[in-house]
Amino acid sequence: MPRFATIDVGTNSVLLLVAERTPEGRFEPVLERAEITRLGRGVDATRRLSAEGMEATLSVLESFAREAREAGAQDIAVSATSAARDASNGPEFLAAAKARAGVTVEIISGQMEAELSFAAVHADFASESAGPLLVLDIGGGSTEFIYGNPAGHVDFRHSFDVGAVRMTERFVSSDPLSSENRARIQAHLRDTFKALPPPPPDAALVGVAGTVTTLYAVQHAIDPYVAERVHGGSLSLGELTALVDRLCQMPVEERRTLPGMQPKRADVIPAGALILLESVKALGLEGCRVSDRGLRWGLLAHRFGAGAARS
After folding, report:
1. What does the alpha-carbon distance between residue 142 and residue 122 come to, in Å, rounded to a whole number?
2. 111-295 under CATH 3.30.930.10, yes or no
3. Which residues have C-beta within 8 Å of that of residue 254, sequence separation ≥ 6?
4. Contact 247, 255 (CB under 8 A)
5. Is the predicted pLDDT of residue 311 greater than 50, yes or no?
6. Cα distance between residue 161 and residue 174, in whole Å
7. Three-state SS at 33
8. pLDDT tens-digit map of 128-173
9. Residues 72-99: what's their mean pLDDT?
């Protein structure tokens, strides 16, 4: 069966997926990798990718592209999101990626990011939900909301410039977070999310990306991380509220040691957790489902699915 790969270069992390396309058009994962490289460090303030962030990301990109080819991938699609969109020196990063990893990185819009994340969630969760699906994609630099119907049509999508890294750099000045730091983040998020339209009746919310999966893994002490134990799980509003309180009151070094925590994510997880909590509250819901399959899966279907192969 033919194999294809996608690499999702985000503000905080880089994710690799290599999958086989079955004769029925489904994709079965062969290899998955994730590394936190913090490409978007400082971008909110400087509007430039730092030399350190670019070097760490390019090094991982080289390694992931090599692994994908060794695993038999016929083609590799690479996307970059918020940090690369916002940075004035994004073209420099794209040129270096081509030279060092032999891949063409496409900087996708927030709207396309939302579409791809929804496609990935719809493929896995539509059969479980009789009503509309809401998708929440919390990244390092931006957060996407997508409302869609059971048939897979997107009715609303919007990308907000709030992400775990961006909120941490903008508002966090103490360790652990002071009550003032937390209050400023929450006030900013509540003001931002006022722009959201009310969700349709009987809608189910699914959260994707590393913040959501990490929070579920910490809540259930899943260590080492096992995607099958995380994908399809649920976090209630009560669980989220207690977990946010716990993470915000804990020093970063203590957070790093929590079962289920990626150590490199520990500094930005309180801000990410607050984004999830305030999102659930803004939507008037009682919790969310958890998806381990985000943009990289949507990109896989978009670029290498049966319909794409025929076009």
Report:
1. 21
2. no
3. none
4. yes
5. no
6. 22
7. strand
8. 767 899 999 998 888 999 999 888 889 999 989 999 999 999 999 9
9. 91
State the span(s) of the chain assigned CATH 3.30.420.150: 111-295
Domain topology for 3-107: Nucleotidyltransferase; domain 5 (3.30.420)
| 123/297 Cα distance (integer angstroms) | 9
φ, ψ for residue 285 (rounded to 5)? Answer: -110, 170
The pTM of this model reads 0.88
In angstroms, the Cα distances linking 84 to 10, 181, 183, 278 are 8, 27, 29, 26
6 with 77: CB under 8 angstroms?
A: yes
Q: State phi, psi for 130 to the nearest 5 degrees.
A: -80, -20
Q: Are 279 and 211 in contact (CB under 8 A)?
A: no
Short-list 308, 22, 296, 4, CA closest to 137? 296
The more confident residue out of 112 and 234 is 234
Give, as one character, the DSSP assignment of residue 198. Answer: P
Report how far residue 82's alpha carbon sits from residue 147's, in angstroms, rounded to the nearest whole number. 20
> Six-digit token pair at 132?
């509309």
- For tokens 């489902």, what's the residue? 289
DSSP 39-79: TTTTHHHHSS--HHHHHHHHHHHHHHHHHHHHTT-S-EEEE
- Could you give the CA distance from residue 190 to residue 24 in angstroms, rounded to a whole number? 44
